[in-house]
Amino acid sequence: MKLVVSDTKSGRTVQIDVPEEKRAFITGKQIGNEIQGDDFGLPGYTLKLTGGSDTSGFPMRSSVSGSRKIKSLVSGGPGFKPERKGQRKKKVFRGDTYSPEITQVNSMVSKPGAKSLDELFPKEEKADKEEGK
To answer: Given this model, what pLDDT does residue 125 score?
Structure first.
C-alpha cells in the first residue's frame, strides 16, 4: 500500500510505502477522515484522506458507501471527465471505506508539522542519462 501525501501550500507530493503492520491505521477509515502522520514518518502532521484506488486501478468515490465495488452511471466527478456537455457513462468505482484491497491512498496535509516535507523527504537527484552512453 502506498500513501500519497500532497501539500497544497508548497505543491510538493510524497509517496510513502506503508508496511503491513501500519495498514491497520488506514483500514476502516472513510474518505474525509483525518489520520495522524506520526505513524507514517511525518511527526506532527495531520492528514486528511481524499481518495485512492484499488488493486485493479478502480478509483474510490465518496458517494458510494462501504468498501464495495459497483458499476454506476456518472456524469462527472472523480473517476470520469466528460468530453462533451451532458455526457454520461457507466464506470466501476470503489466505495468510500478503505479496505485491504486498496493499494493507493491519497491524502492532503490538513495540519503541517514542525519540519517541512522537503526536510523530511529530500529530493533525489536524477542520474544523468549522458553517463550511460
So the answer is: 64
